[in-house]
Every structure is written in C-alpha cells, then in structure tokens.
Amino acid sequence: MFSTLKTLIQGTNARAEARLRDEHAIELIDQKIREAETGLKNAKFSLASLIQKQRGEAAQLTRIEGQIIDLTDRATGALADARDDLAGQAAEAIATLENEATLRRQTVNRLDAHVLQLQSAVERASRRILDLKQGAVAARAVRREQGAQRVLRRHIAQDSAFEEAEALIAQVLGADDPFEQAQILDDIDSGLKPDSALNTLADAGYGAAQQVTAAAVLARLKTA
C-alpha cells in the first residue's frame, strides 16, 4: 500500500511540475538562455586565458631557440680557436636549453590543441544561443496566439448574445400571422350569430333568404 501511495504521489508531483513548466515555459526559456550566456561568457574568459598562456609559452620557446642558436655560434667559434673548455661549457648550456625547448614545445603543442578545441566549443555554443533566442521569439509568438485563442473561446462561451439573437429570430419567424388570425376570428364570430343558420338553410333552398343577395337581384331583373 505504501508503494502504491508513493507512486500516486510521484505521479501527482510529476503532473504538477509539468503544468508548472508549461505555464511558465517562456520564463524558463529566458532563464536557460541567460544561464547559457553566462556559461559562454566564462568559456570565453577561459579561452582568452588559455590563448594568453599559449602565447607566453610560444614566446619562451622562441627565446630559448634564439639562445640555442647564439650559443651554438659562440661554441663553434670557441672550437675554431681551440678553446674546448669554453666550447664544453657552451655545449652543456645548449643541452639544457634544448631539453627545456623540448618541454616548452610540447606544452605549446598541447595548448594549441586545447585552444582549437575550446574555440570550436565557444563557436558552437554561440550558434546554439542564437538558435535558442530565435526559438524563444517563435515561442513567445505562439504563446501570444494561444492566449488570444483562449480569451476568444472563453468570451464566446460566456457570451449569451448569440443564443439570445437566435431565439429572437426563431420567435419572430414562428409568430402567428395577425391577418390570418383576424380572418379566423371573423369566421368564428359569423358562425356564432343567430341568423347564420337561417342564411345557410336559405342558401340551400329551404325557406326565404334573410338578406337580399346578388343572385336574387339578377333573377328579378330577368323576369322584369
């Protein structure tokens, strides 16, 4: 049971975190971009320091190589003058300098490789930050569009003007015709009068008519 409760709690927390991340997605994107820019800035400082150290080592190597050339020339001159003692001292100094030059050269080569790697990393990071900024602009546009759509849907859902207008239109179109209603009322009133039955029987030929009709006038004119 404890395991089940733990799983449910973890699921609830995960869903809450997902909702929170979605709600504050734009702020999180901006924060991550700032963190990436801070990392890029630190990488640039590291690269500058590494290049400075590389240049210093290269300058030292150049100086040592110059000393080796100078001592070699001097030692050659001493040997030419049969000053083996001086040439021997020069040879010892040259050997020390050559060993140091070898170490310096290895250091310079290693720094060159590190500089190239860090330069490539800085360039990649810079391009990715530009891509992130462009993506953030697109994300803001999408989020604004989504917000506008939500407001519109909420407004339409809460606005009863549509339903009221439709109901009024249906009421007008379905209303009774007043002229037809008046004619029906006249017919009803005529049927309720006492002489209506007499007129009906007279028209059928039973008894005299209660009122002069056009047919009676026409018959009288023919016999005149």
Q: Can you lay out the helices and strands and say which pair or pack?
A:
Elements (H helix, E strand, L loop, with lengths): L1 H22 L1 H56 L3 H75 L2 H13 L4 H15 L2 H9 L10 H10 L1
Report on the structure:
- With 224 residues, the protein is mainly alpha-helical.
- The protein folds into two domains: 2-165, Helix Hairpins (Orthogonal Bundle), CATH 1.10.287.1700; 179-223, no CATH class.
- Helix content is 89%, strand content 0%.
- The protein has seven helices and no strands.
- It has helices spanning 2-23, 25-80, 84-158, 161-173, 178-192, 195-203, 214-223.
- The chain starts with a helix and ends with a helix.
Briefly say what this structure is.
With 224 residues, the chain is mainly alpha-helical. Helix content is 89%, strand content 0%. The protein contains 7 helices and no strands.
Oligomeric state:
single chain
The major β-sheet equals:
none
Q: Which CATH C-level class of the largest domain is it?
A: Mainly Alpha
Taking the alpha carbons of the first and last residues, their distance comes to: 118 Å
How helical, in percent, are the residues? Answer: over 70%
Rg, nearest Å:
55 Å
Number of helices: 7
Low-confidence stretches: none
Instruction: State the total count of DSSP E strands.
Output: 0
Order of helices and strands: HHHHHHH
Our count of domains comes out at 2
In the CATH hierarchy, the third-tier topology of the largest domain is known as Helix Hairpins
CATH architecture title of the largest domain: Orthogonal Bundle
Output the structural class: mainly alpha
Question: Could you tell me the strand content as a percent range?
Answer: under 5%
Mean pLDDT, to the nearest integer, reads 76
Shape type: rod-shaped
